[in-house]
Amino acid sequence: MQDTLSAAASHRKGLLITAFGGLMLTIDIPLIRLSQGEVWSVLAIRSALTVIAAILAWGTIRLIFKHRVPFIPGKAGLLVAALYALSAVTFMLAVFNTSTANLVFILAFNPMFSALLAWLLAGEKPRPQTFAAMIAMIIGVLMIVYDGMRAGNLTGDLLALASSFTLACAITASRKARTDLGFAPLFAAIVPSMIGFVMAGGPSNLVLAEPVWLVLNGLIIIPIAFWCLATGPKYISGPEVAMFYLLETILAPIWIWMIFSETPSPIGLAGGAIIVVTLVAHSTWQLLMHRRAVRTLAPRHPM
User: Fold this and answer.
1) For the packed helices 238-260 and 100-107, what is the interaxial angle rounded to 10 degrees?
2) CA angle, 164 as apex, 161 and 168 as ends, to 5°?
3) CA 230 – CA 186 distance, rounded (Å)
4) DSSP for the chain, written as a single string
5) What is the pLDDT of residue 38?
6) What is the mean pLDDT of each run of 10 residues along the chain (303 residues)?
7) Which end of the chain is more exposed for a tag (fewer CB within 10 A), N or C?
8) Beta strands in the chain (DSSP E)
9) pTM (two decimals)
């Protein structure tokens, strides 16, 4: 009985931590837009702040908790860091070249890219339900890209697609490495930071009208959001964690609409709706399958 209560408490703790992280992540793009900066300036400063936050966290863990965590462990760490760095650059360029709704809807294709990569690289063939979800989401993405061509946002939509694919590659490489890579994506931010500073022409040429929003984002929001989302799987299942990642897809366009009055086009909204509904349905199915498997493996008392 006590074990059951303890497990329930851990599950509630995981839900609260992950939900908080997912909610924090939803204000990432609005804070970037509120900073009113030029793209390379924003990339440079936001990435540099992420590295600073990572160093502070790493130092705290090392000095206070006496736990030695490597910056980037081995070749696997270098690969993961490089992929996260590339994803950060394409993400920031997409923010400034397409609508927020298009960006988060296309980024939501990440789980399907991950499933495809797991199939191609590890031989983990997706279930028929996942294949069906892929087809539906591809239709949604194609609708958004077609709408981007009409609105002149094709470059931004393709950058969002590249960011989604690169992030899926990073996640797949992390799973394959089976080592502690928690700090790799944070320290990898030094690469996009350097790119941003070079492209902006140096620190003296940075353009940022409202830097306080970016400081809030880079030093507090992003580190806390990713820490919560990375901690969640210790207490709850993968499908449950995936559901909270959907909060950004759903809420970020709403915050942008409320702050900047930016509304997605009908075609883009229809494509996004297909992606969101498909993701919710697929994640719910995964969650039910996981719980059914847990109940099957649970020990039963003799009658």
Assistant:
1) 170
2) 140
3) 12
4) -HHHHHHHHHHHHHHHHHHHHHHHHTTHHHHHHHTTB-HHHHHHHHHHHHHHHHHHHHHHHHHTS-----SS-HHHHHHHHHHHHHHHHHHHHHHTTS-HHHHHHHHTTHHHHHHHHHHHHH--PPPHHHHHHHHHHHHHHHHHHHHHHHHT-HHHHHHHHHHHHHHHHHHHHHHHHTS--TTHHHHTTHHHHHHHHHHHTSGGG--BS-HHHHHHIIIIIHHHHHHHHHHGGGTS-HHHHHHHHHHHHHHHHHHHHHHH-----HHHHHHHHHHHHHHHHHHHHHHHHHHHHHHHHS-----
5) 92
6) 63 81 90 93 92 84 72 75 89 91 85 79 76 86 84 88 87 68 76 93 89 91 80 65 76 89 85 86 76 60 44
7) C
8) none
9) 0.81
Q: Which amino acid is at 94?
A: A
Structure token digits, residue 9: 């408490």
The two structure tokens encoding residue 229: 């989302």
Q: Residues for the chain: how many in total?
A: 303
Token output for 33? 């837009």
